[in-house]
Write a structure and sequence with these properties.
This protein has an eight-stranded mixed β-sheet with strand order 2-3-4-1-13-16-15-14. A hairpin with an 8-residue loop joins strand 3 (42-51) and strand 4. It has a single domain, classed as 2,3-Dihydroxybiphenyl 1,2-Dioxygenase, domain 1 (Roll), CATH 3.10.180.10. The protein is an alpha+beta fold. The chain has helices spanning 18-28, 91-100, 160-170, 222-234, 293-299, and strands at residues 8-15, 32-39, 42-51, 60-65, 78-87, 106-110, 113-119, 125-131, 149-156, 174-179, 182-186, 194-198, 211-219, 243-244, 249-254, 260-265. The protein is globular and about 50 Å long. The protein has five helices and 16 strands.
Protein backbone atom coordinates (compact mmCIF):
# COMPACT_ATOMS: atom_id res chain seq x y z
CA UNK A 1 0.00 0.00 0.00
CA UNK A 2 1.30 3.47 -0.96
CA UNK A 3 0.20 6.37 1.22
CA UNK A 4 0.72 10.09 0.79
CA UNK A 5 -0.16 12.80 3.30
CA UNK A 6 -1.29 16.21 2.02
CA UNK A 7 0.93 17.84 4.66
CA UNK A 8 0.69 19.32 8.14
CA UNK A 9 -2.74 19.22 9.80
CA UNK A 10 -1.84 20.99 13.06
CA UNK A 11 1.04 21.64 15.43
CA UNK A 12 0.52 21.58 19.21
CA UNK A 13 2.80 23.37 21.66
CA UNK A 14 3.04 24.01 25.38
CA UNK A 15 2.97 27.58 26.65
CA UNK A 16 2.42 29.40 29.94
CA UNK A 17 -0.31 31.97 30.48
CA UNK A 18 -3.40 31.54 28.23
CA UNK A 19 -4.12 35.30 28.12
CA UNK A 20 -0.60 36.07 26.89
CA UNK A 21 -0.96 33.22 24.40
CA UNK A 22 -4.24 34.59 22.98
CA UNK A 23 -2.95 38.13 22.93
CA UNK A 24 0.14 37.20 20.87
CA UNK A 25 -1.44 34.87 18.32
CA UNK A 26 -4.53 37.07 17.81
CA UNK A 27 -3.27 40.61 18.14
CA UNK A 28 0.28 40.29 16.87
CA UNK A 29 0.09 37.42 14.36
CA UNK A 30 -3.56 38.06 13.45
CA UNK A 31 -4.68 34.43 13.58
CA UNK A 32 -8.25 33.58 14.58
CA UNK A 33 -9.06 31.70 17.79
CA UNK A 34 -11.21 28.99 16.21
CA UNK A 35 -11.82 26.86 19.30
CA UNK A 36 -11.65 27.30 23.03
CA UNK A 37 -11.83 23.90 24.68
CA UNK A 38 -9.91 21.83 27.22
CA UNK A 39 -7.23 19.19 26.92
CA UNK A 40 -9.43 16.08 26.62
CA UNK A 41 -6.78 14.07 28.53
CA UNK A 42 -6.39 16.76 31.23
CA UNK A 43 -9.59 18.86 31.40
CA UNK A 44 -8.15 21.29 33.97
CA UNK A 45 -6.06 22.78 31.14
CA UNK A 46 -7.26 24.76 28.14
CA UNK A 47 -6.71 23.58 24.61
CA UNK A 48 -6.71 26.69 22.41
CA UNK A 49 -6.85 26.35 18.61
CA UNK A 50 -5.79 29.16 16.28
CA UNK A 51 -5.85 29.16 12.49
CA UNK A 52 -7.13 30.84 9.38
CA UNK A 53 -10.72 32.07 9.59
CA UNK A 54 -12.10 28.50 9.34
CA UNK A 55 -9.31 26.64 11.09
CA UNK A 56 -8.47 24.79 7.87
CA UNK A 57 -6.06 21.86 8.06
CA UNK A 58 -2.56 23.19 7.43
CA UNK A 59 -3.24 26.40 9.36
CA UNK A 60 -4.02 25.11 12.87
CA UNK A 61 -1.66 25.99 15.71
CA UNK A 62 -2.86 24.67 19.06
CA UNK A 63 -1.70 25.21 22.62
CA UNK A 64 -1.84 23.69 26.05
CA UNK A 65 -1.24 26.65 28.39
CA UNK A 66 0.32 25.23 31.55
CA UNK A 67 0.63 28.18 33.91
CA UNK A 68 2.82 26.50 36.50
CA UNK A 69 4.84 24.24 34.23
CA UNK A 70 8.58 24.49 33.92
CA UNK A 71 10.26 25.92 30.84
CA UNK A 72 11.21 23.23 28.33
CA UNK A 73 14.25 23.10 26.10
CA UNK A 74 14.03 22.67 22.36
CA UNK A 75 16.27 19.87 21.16
CA UNK A 76 16.29 16.56 19.36
CA UNK A 77 13.06 14.59 19.19
CA UNK A 78 11.02 17.77 18.75
CA UNK A 79 9.74 20.21 16.18
CA UNK A 80 12.39 22.93 16.39
CA UNK A 81 10.61 25.67 14.48
CA UNK A 82 7.07 26.29 13.29
CA UNK A 83 7.08 28.28 10.05
CA UNK A 84 4.09 30.41 9.00
CA UNK A 85 3.48 31.56 5.43
CA UNK A 86 2.86 35.22 4.61
CA UNK A 87 1.97 36.48 1.11
CA UNK A 88 4.72 37.23 -1.43
CA UNK A 89 6.22 40.67 -0.87
CA UNK A 90 5.01 41.02 2.73
CA UNK A 91 8.08 40.09 4.77
CA UNK A 92 9.20 43.71 5.21
CA UNK A 93 5.73 44.59 6.54
CA UNK A 94 6.00 41.76 9.07
CA UNK A 95 9.48 42.76 10.16
CA UNK A 96 8.17 46.23 10.93
CA UNK A 97 4.98 44.93 12.58
CA UNK A 98 6.76 42.46 14.86
CA UNK A 99 9.36 45.05 15.81
CA UNK A 100 6.58 47.56 16.62
CA UNK A 101 5.10 44.97 19.02
CA UNK A 102 8.49 44.66 20.71
CA UNK A 103 9.31 41.26 19.19
CA UNK A 104 13.01 40.72 18.46
CA UNK A 105 13.36 39.64 14.82
CA UNK A 106 16.29 38.16 12.93
CA UNK A 107 16.30 37.87 9.13
CA UNK A 108 18.17 35.11 7.30
CA UNK A 109 17.96 32.88 4.21
CA UNK A 110 17.39 29.17 3.64
CA UNK A 111 16.78 27.42 0.29
CA UNK A 112 16.91 30.81 -1.48
CA UNK A 113 14.00 32.06 0.60
CA UNK A 114 14.05 34.90 3.14
CA UNK A 115 12.91 34.12 6.68
CA UNK A 116 12.12 36.13 9.81
CA UNK A 117 12.99 34.25 12.97
CA UNK A 118 11.50 35.19 16.34
CA UNK A 119 9.97 33.69 19.48
CA UNK A 120 6.52 33.86 20.99
CA UNK A 121 6.14 35.24 24.56
CA UNK A 122 6.90 31.79 26.00
CA UNK A 123 10.03 31.04 23.97
CA UNK A 124 8.49 28.97 21.15
CA UNK A 125 10.62 29.13 17.98
CA UNK A 126 8.69 30.68 15.07
CA UNK A 127 9.53 31.83 11.56
CA UNK A 128 7.74 33.64 8.74
CA UNK A 129 8.51 33.19 5.07
CA UNK A 130 6.79 34.27 1.85
CA UNK A 131 4.63 31.87 -0.12
CA UNK A 132 1.85 32.36 -2.72
CA UNK A 133 -1.34 33.46 -0.93
CA UNK A 134 -3.89 30.78 -0.06
CA UNK A 135 -6.80 33.20 0.36
CA UNK A 136 -6.89 33.93 4.10
CA UNK A 137 -7.53 37.41 5.47
CA UNK A 138 -7.45 38.75 9.03
CA UNK A 139 -9.35 41.55 10.76
CA UNK A 140 -6.15 42.56 12.58
CA UNK A 141 -3.70 42.75 9.66
CA UNK A 142 -4.05 44.99 6.56
CA UNK A 143 -5.51 43.39 3.43
CA UNK A 144 -2.93 41.29 1.58
CA UNK A 145 -0.60 40.67 4.53
CA UNK A 146 -2.37 38.01 6.63
CA UNK A 147 -0.69 34.78 7.64
CA UNK A 148 -1.96 32.08 5.25
CA UNK A 149 -1.26 29.06 7.43
CA UNK A 150 1.87 27.03 7.93
CA UNK A 151 4.67 27.20 5.42
CA UNK A 152 6.03 24.16 7.21
CA UNK A 153 8.13 22.97 10.11
CA UNK A 154 11.74 22.18 10.95
CA UNK A 155 12.22 18.89 12.79
CA UNK A 156 15.12 18.09 15.12
CA UNK A 157 15.52 14.37 15.01
CA UNK A 158 17.66 12.06 17.10
CA UNK A 159 17.95 9.90 13.95
CA UNK A 160 17.65 12.37 11.02
CA UNK A 161 18.11 9.83 8.24
CA UNK A 162 15.48 7.50 9.68
CA UNK A 163 13.11 10.45 10.04
CA UNK A 164 13.87 11.40 6.43
CA UNK A 165 13.12 7.83 5.29
CA UNK A 166 9.83 7.95 7.16
CA UNK A 167 8.77 11.22 5.51
CA UNK A 168 9.87 10.25 2.02
CA UNK A 169 9.30 6.53 1.80
CA UNK A 170 6.47 5.87 4.24
CA UNK A 171 4.49 9.14 4.33
CA UNK A 172 4.85 9.90 0.62
CA UNK A 173 6.56 13.31 0.73
CA UNK A 174 8.77 14.41 -2.14
CA UNK A 175 12.46 14.87 -1.32
CA UNK A 176 13.59 18.28 -2.61
CA UNK A 177 17.25 18.15 -1.59
CA UNK A 178 19.77 19.08 1.04
CA UNK A 179 20.97 22.56 1.92
CA UNK A 180 23.58 22.82 4.63
CA UNK A 181 22.29 20.67 7.48
CA UNK A 182 18.66 20.64 6.23
CA UNK A 183 16.89 17.91 4.27
CA UNK A 184 13.78 19.36 2.65
CA UNK A 185 10.55 17.53 1.80
CA UNK A 186 7.42 18.84 0.06
CA UNK A 187 3.80 17.76 -0.05
CA UNK A 188 1.04 18.72 -2.49
CA UNK A 189 -1.18 20.88 -0.24
CA UNK A 190 -1.15 24.67 -0.71
CA UNK A 191 -0.26 25.27 2.98
CA UNK A 192 1.72 23.26 5.53
CA UNK A 193 3.65 21.62 2.73
CA UNK A 194 7.37 21.97 3.57
CA UNK A 195 9.07 19.77 6.13
CA UNK A 196 12.75 20.11 6.87
CA UNK A 197 14.79 17.65 8.89
CA UNK A 198 17.87 19.10 10.54
CA UNK A 199 20.85 16.75 10.48
CA UNK A 200 22.75 18.86 13.03
CA UNK A 201 23.27 17.10 16.36
CA UNK A 202 21.28 18.59 19.25
CA UNK A 203 20.99 17.56 22.88
CA UNK A 204 17.74 15.80 23.61
CA UNK A 205 14.82 18.23 23.95
CA UNK A 206 12.98 18.61 27.23
CA UNK A 207 9.21 18.92 27.11
CA UNK A 208 7.93 22.03 28.88
CA UNK A 209 6.68 25.51 28.10
CA UNK A 210 8.02 27.02 24.89
CA UNK A 211 8.32 23.65 23.15
CA UNK A 212 6.22 21.75 20.62
CA UNK A 213 4.35 18.73 21.97
CA UNK A 214 3.57 17.04 18.64
CA UNK A 215 3.01 17.58 14.93
CA UNK A 216 -0.02 16.19 13.11
CA UNK A 217 -0.22 15.25 9.43
CA UNK A 218 -3.37 15.02 7.34
CA UNK A 219 -5.62 12.06 6.58
CA UNK A 220 -8.53 12.68 4.18
CA UNK A 221 -11.24 11.00 6.26
CA UNK A 222 -11.93 8.16 8.72
CA UNK A 223 -11.35 5.47 6.12
CA UNK A 224 -8.05 6.98 5.00
CA UNK A 225 -6.96 7.18 8.63
CA UNK A 226 -7.63 3.49 9.22
CA UNK A 227 -5.45 2.81 6.18
CA UNK A 228 -2.74 5.00 7.71
CA UNK A 229 -2.98 3.07 10.96
CA UNK A 230 -2.47 -0.20 9.10
CA UNK A 231 0.23 1.34 6.91
CA UNK A 232 2.26 2.63 9.88
CA UNK A 233 1.90 -0.68 11.71
CA UNK A 234 3.14 -2.57 8.64
CA UNK A 235 6.25 -0.33 8.65
CA UNK A 236 6.93 -1.16 12.30
CA UNK A 237 5.45 1.93 13.96
CA UNK A 238 3.22 1.20 16.96
CA UNK A 239 0.20 3.51 16.67
CA UNK A 240 -2.46 4.30 19.25
CA UNK A 241 -6.11 3.45 18.74
CA UNK A 242 -8.22 6.06 16.94
CA UNK A 243 -9.05 8.88 19.38
CA UNK A 244 -12.05 11.14 18.80
CA UNK A 245 -10.87 14.75 19.27
CA UNK A 246 -14.34 16.10 18.30
CA UNK A 247 -12.94 18.32 15.49
CA UNK A 248 -10.91 15.49 13.93
CA UNK A 249 -9.95 11.92 14.72
CA UNK A 250 -6.37 11.19 15.71
CA UNK A 251 -3.82 8.41 15.90
CA UNK A 252 -0.35 8.91 17.37
CA UNK A 253 3.01 7.22 17.03
CA UNK A 254 6.57 7.95 18.11
CA UNK A 255 8.94 8.08 15.16
CA UNK A 256 12.53 6.79 15.37
CA UNK A 257 14.11 10.20 15.90
CA UNK A 258 11.99 10.71 19.03
CA UNK A 259 9.28 13.01 17.64
CA UNK A 260 5.63 12.42 18.47
CA UNK A 261 3.68 12.28 15.19
CA UNK A 262 -0.09 12.33 14.86
CA UNK A 263 -2.27 11.62 11.84
CA UNK A 264 -5.49 13.63 11.99
CA UNK A 265 -8.55 13.60 9.72
CA UNK A 266 -9.55 16.76 7.81
CA UNK A 267 -13.23 16.41 8.77
CA UNK A 268 -15.38 17.31 10.64
CA UNK A 269 -13.66 20.62 11.51
CA UNK A 270 -14.43 23.43 13.92
CA UNK A 271 -17.98 24.32 12.88
CA UNK A 272 -19.06 20.95 14.26
CA UNK A 273 -20.32 22.48 17.53
CA UNK A 274 -20.62 26.25 16.94
CA UNK A 275 -21.44 28.43 13.93
CA UNK A 276 -18.65 29.94 11.81
CA UNK A 277 -19.18 33.52 13.04
CA UNK A 278 -19.00 32.43 16.69
CA UNK A 279 -15.94 30.17 16.52
CA UNK A 280 -13.79 30.43 19.62
CA UNK A 281 -16.23 32.54 21.64
CA UNK A 282 -17.54 29.99 24.14
CA UNK A 283 -15.79 27.26 26.10
CA UNK A 284 -16.73 24.08 24.23
CA UNK A 285 -16.53 20.69 25.94
CA UNK A 286 -16.92 17.21 24.51
CA UNK A 287 -20.29 15.66 25.38
CA UNK A 288 -18.72 13.32 27.94
CA UNK A 289 -17.25 16.27 29.88
CA UNK A 290 -20.44 18.43 29.87
CA UNK A 291 -21.65 16.99 33.20
CA UNK A 292 -18.44 18.39 34.76
CA UNK A 293 -18.69 21.85 33.12
CA UNK A 294 -19.17 23.83 36.33
CA UNK A 295 -16.16 22.23 38.01
CA UNK A 296 -14.01 22.59 34.86
CA UNK A 297 -14.93 26.26 34.36
CA UNK A 298 -14.11 26.99 38.01
CA UNK A 299 -10.61 25.55 37.56
CA UNK A 300 -9.78 27.65 34.45
CA UNK A 301 -8.68 31.27 34.31
CA UNK A 302 -11.37 32.98 32.15
CA UNK A 303 -10.00 34.08 28.77
CA UNK A 304 -11.69 35.74 25.80
CA UNK A 305 -11.07 35.98 22.11
CA UNK A 306 -10.99 39.81 22.14
CA UNK A 307 -13.21 39.94 19.02
ZN1 LIG B 1 -2.77 16.90 17.93
Amino acid sequence: MKKKTAGIHHITAIVENPKENISFYLEVLGLRLVKKTVNFDDPGTYHLYFGDSEGSPGTIMTFFPWNQARRGRTGSGQVDTTVFAVPLGSLAFWKERLTAFGVKVEQFGRYNEAYLRFQDPHGLHLELTERPPAGNSSSRVPEGYAIQGFAGAVLNSGAPHQTADLLGQVMGMKYVGQEGTYLRFKTEASVGNTIEVSTAPFPRGELGTGTVHHIAFRAQDDEDQLEWQQHMTSHGYATTEVKDRDYFKAIYFRERGGLLFEIATDPPGFTRDEPFDQLGQELKLPVWLEPRREQIEASLEPVHALE
